[in-house]
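Audit log entry. Action: structure prediction of a protein-small molecule complex. Ligand: flavin-adenine dinucleotide. The ligand was supplied as SMILES and no pocket hint was given, so placement is left entirely to the predictor. Protonation state taken as written. Sequence taken verbatim from the request; no trimming, no tag removal. Recorded inputs:
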Amino acid sequence: MHYSVFSLMKQALAGHRGWGPAWRDAAPKPAYDVIVVGGGGHGLATAHYLAKVHGISRVAVVEKGWIGSGNAGRNTTIIRSNYLLPGNNPFYELSMKLWEGLEQDLNYNTMVSQRGVLNLYHSDSQRDAYARRGNAMRMHGVDAELLDQEGVRKLVPFMDFDNARFPIQGGLLQRRGGTARHDAVVWGYARAASERGVDIIQNCEVTGFLRDGDRVIGVETTRGPIRANKVGMAVAGNTSKVARLAGLRLPIESHVLQAFVSEAIKPFIAGVVTFGAGHFYISQSDKGGLVFGGDIDGYNSYAQRGNLPIVEDVCEGGMALMPAIGRVRMLRSWGGIMDMSMDGSPIIDHSPMPGLYLNTGWCYGGFKATPASGYCFAHLLASDESHATARAFRLDRYATGHLIDERGVGAQPNLH
Ligand SMILES: Cc1cc2nc3c(=O)[nH]c(=O)nc-3n(C[C@H](O)[C@H](O)[C@H](O)COP(=O)(O)OP(=O)(O)OC[C@H]3O[C@@H](n4cnc5c(N)ncnc54)[C@H](O)[C@@H]3O)c2cc1C
């Protein structure tokens, strides 16, 4: 069913009784051309682009729970392409361009809202670092503006500018950054992929890999074995567990990242704001809730819930930046499992085993990458060649030393 103003009017007049399910909840078939493990944003986007761009629609997306039950439905929805390094910058800008056309592409309202992402700086050296980042972005054709304190004050007047422990000196603004509704992104990709013949198989956990020697020729699941010419893994925080089923040990650690939502208040923050003197970022949802987060929990875990020290740490960051939110009540918080890579950048590559392909290492920044990740992973699965913008995301860079160390902290995921 094509969504349009006319279909909406027709349904409105008919009491909204004629809407069909947005996608088919399929049962597994014995074999596919490609199986994508993981029904998050990346897995579903991969299936969509496999079908749409490469004409490969004998594809199954196999999800152990329900689609969007992982990080895709748990993130703070920020999208941006304000990256410094050549390995990252063109890739995230490809993603931003895909976001900008996504609603038309999917015929689905994913609520892409380019309301701006502002990174605050609090010292001269931090200003210089942001100026450098902004220049790198502009050299790659990405929009960036360096604001002084007055420029920031115009955008977000409620911050603590003058009496703060870390006074705000200015900020780096990417106006094209913003937010997108995460569930809608999952549902939109699922609907578009399903319409092109992709099977979306929920409640189907991959428990092992079918092998012919070294070659992976399918998956064992809780709903029986399924064969495939190629198997792509897009299981985010579960990567090390699923890779272990194939006997692989990857340079990934799993950590919890928490998110928080407050009660709804009147419009307070226009876009996304990040604190430069601590790990805290915030935006306001269309319903009025403040949506915010900070650092990962400091230990490895596969639990999708976090602990109290980080709650305190995040709230302290918020209070340092904008004491005005001190009396706002927190409504809820939750956690997701991050696949932290050893240089903070992703991996989209062949695995060492023929027939098995990897999409992982998104750390806490993979939502914004969803369209480009799916696009480039589909390219790799279809052609066996890395897409030009994802060529740097090789697995062997940890052996060869070609790290993409965006944060400049070295191979220390606990510091990312
Ligand atoms: C609190 C929080 C805030 C975040 N904020 C942002 C943000 O603002 N901006 C941003 O860019 N990124 C953000 N992220 C990161 C982003 O959400 C992730 O990097 C991204 O969603 C990961 O890709 P995915 O959507 O495919 O993952 P997921 O949605 O986690 O998909 C993986 C799927 O694989 C399934 N799976 C796992 N094991 C198996 C198995 N054995 N068999 C079958 N299926 C399996 C899981 O159930 C899951 O549904 C945030 C993450 C969290 C948790």
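Audit: result stored. The first helix runs from residue 5 to 13. The longest strand covers residues 252-264.
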